């Protein structure tokens, strides 16, 4: 259980003050799949960084399984928005990294890595360095790395943003399959409302910067869901319409502010 | 590095792509050969100009001539002078290089990891950095005598700074995101050192080592020029005292050749170790 209690973030850099996130309250249950959606710059990544323990909160507190977060949160796997693969390690060596850190025996690592490479459809690219992979391939390696050591909680920041539509659907189906069999807690940031509704138990809509929670919507569509077919479901379309009504004005606001 | 075969490449990029790739690689090889030929050509042209000018327009007393230098090199090789001098200089240079780079690496690493020490020592490092190290040569001879020790010291001192600064920058330059994500994966500080900080700093350290090789050579030779009775620097100094221009040029040629060979070796090592940077 992740408990976010009035957690907010203000950045102060060189005399400039940016309120990245107004204090937000949110509880994410064990095994729950929650998506965060909102206009660019509203503080979604900042919130994930705070849950991951790599950015300290400037107000409020965050607890993971009743323990306050202070320092790197080793209970979570975090796929960051920026590339975090180590450039001097091949795709395989990157996927192996968390296992190496945990002291998993070598033979087990080899088996697990090839399983993960197959999962993200990159079995031919294990020996490639990140600089030799496309942006979408790097994202898939990062996802494989996150899944490799099987953490109970996954923090995923736009994991499928760089993929083409077809691959995206495949990866969504794969992620749902993993989630349904392992019941991980997943916090998923996306700009894609269809994706958020397809995958989640709850969708959290953020306002434009400084972000606050504008709306939380439970998605009661039956599971298992087929990412391709679900979009034509009447209940899905209704949810999409009403969430879009909440989201669109915020995106407009953020855009106007950027232009001003 | 083993290049993928045409067949293996074909599996990934299709037959036309593989053809183009193979053609491109052959083209690269041809191009490399042409460059090498051009480099040799430029050298030959310079020698020719030197040969023509010397004696015709300029007195060989000032600029000697290619044949005189070649003869000098041959006599030095034949009577063992060259080998003696070269091993002496090379030994001083290598010792200075190893001592200087180890000390520079250790110091750069410690200061790079500690904000407190880095800030405390900052003005002193800048002060020492601004100082022309060559100016210390007479002092080093006073301290270490005219034997090999003072040459090693000179060379080590110059190398120390180059490697120190590069290591320091390399350790500071580590992307904090890499430390964060490995921290979340549960890495200890020691593991982060081994898995993130060392490999990340490696590129910087290698650059430091590469640029310091010629300086190590210069350091040793400067020591010999000022006071010594052995080494290439001594040969150059002695020849110039006797107005033996051919001898001076012969000594310089040996130094140049040593520099070129060492640099080529380090470049190879660098490409091997930094293969992950991909093709640029
Ligand atoms: N380290 C930092 N220093 C200063 N400001 C920051 C820092 N990190 C983020 N910000 C600011 O905080 C705000 C929120 O950033 P954040 O990355 O959380 O947005 P986001 O919702 O993830 O946006 P996007 O959808 O574009 O990824 C932005 O205005 C950004 O400029
Ligand atoms: Mg973001």
| Count of β-strands of chain A | 10
What name goes with the CATH superfamily of the largest domain in chain A? P-loop containing nucleotide triphosphate hydrolases
**How many structural domains of chain A?**
2
Profile the largest sheet of chain B.
none
Instruction: Estimate what percentage of residues of chain B fall within beta strands.
Output: under 5%
The CATH topology name of the largest domain in chain A reads Rossmann fold
What small-molecule ligands were found? Answer: adenosine-5'-triphosphate, magnesium ion
CATH topology value of the largest domain in chain B: MetI-like fold
CATH superfamily annotation of the largest domain in chain B: MetI-like
Are there runs of chain A of 5+ residues with pLDDT below 50, and where? none
Structural class of the secondary elements of chain B?
A: mainly alpha
Structural class by helix and strand composition of chain A: alpha/beta
CATH architecture of the largest domain in chain A: 3-Layer(aba) Sandwich
General form of chain B: globular
Helix content of chain B: over 70%
Order of helices and strands of chain B: HHHHHHHHHHH
